[in-house]
Amino acid sequence: xxxxLLRVLTGMAFACVTGGTALASNNKAMDADIHxxxxxxxxxxxxxxxxxxxxxxxxxLAKFAAGLAEKYPGRVEPxxxxxxxxxxxxxMAGTLSALGYAKAAKAVLEEAYAKDPAALDAGAPTSLGVLxxxxxGWPIGFGDNEKxxxxxxxxxxxxxxxxxxxxxxxxxxMGQRExxxxxxxxxxxxxxxxxxxxxxxxxxxxxxxxxxMAKAEAN
Length: 219
Hints:
By secondary structure, the protein is mostly helical. The chain is 69% helix and 0% strand. Helix 1 (28-47) runs parallel beside helix 3 (76-92), helix 3 (76-92) runs antiparallel to helix 4 (95-115) and helix 8 (179-191) packs antiparallel against helix 9 (199-218).
């Protein structure tokens, strides 16, 4: 079994599909709390990469995100981010604990998916699809490429201009050696407007999209 059961799961775009500005709900306090989680997640993931404190910080953020789900009962947005940050823990954890975090993330994301699969640019089906594609299959874990394909395709259908929905679907297609289809999806993802309220995330997402496009072209 690899040292990490998952590649790191990156965050879902919290932006309008047309305007590139932060989504505004009917709860400004919740929006501010969610945006705080987004920015902390970005800092921990990108600025603290390789730091000995990285896992401790993501674990603290996961607990904060879980608290938001309790603070705003009935809202799907905090659940999605709780699932995303818990998935990130799985990517950063050691072999013995990674699968436990992945299962916990799956449970939270399934709850979010049942509430609203389209919320936050299809954050729940995108995140679940990534989990199903990257967690090992039976008998080690719950990984399932067919479920991953269904969920990621649904995410793109629900959020056609969601950068993460498109990126992760293309990444899955690359893994299936469907290079032409992946390149087309990546082209669309790269053409989307920049997320000005999340410049660190936007910069890093575009970097990996360019890298994946080059790989798709080479095949």
